[in-house]
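Dear colleague,

Thank you for sharing your sequence with our group. We've completed the structure prediction you requested, and as agreed, I am returning the results in plain text so they can be pasted directly into your records. Please verify that the sequence below matches your submission; if there's any discrepancy, let me know and we will rerun it promptly.
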Amino acid sequence: MHTFVTFIHVLVCFVLILVVLLQAGKGANMGAAFGGSSQTVFGSSGAGTFLGKLTATVAIIFMLTSLLLTYMGTQRGSSIVERSKIPVTQQTPVPASPDSATQPVLPPAAPVNK
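Please find the predicted structure tokens below.
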């Protein structure tokens, strides 16, 4: 179910981007006043109403899938860190001494056989 909703969410993202980019800007009507082509592709009323309604519909679907994915993510009960399979190694603590802040603690040297 989570994979299906994620797929729908990504598909809606691409559709929303495409619909927003298809819309004409606010200055697009000035070109038509000086003999530019009219917007007859989407009907006589132009692209305003059709693309506006399509943008609102796709944006609502995008918000609903976002909320659904968020809800489904919180219902799993564990975080990504808790589900990871990498074991955490514990290091032995180094005893603190007054001069340990200035000098690094080195491991003891191996005995040399002569």
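Summary note from our side: The CA atoms of residues 31 and 49 lie 20 Å apart.

Kind regards,
the structure core
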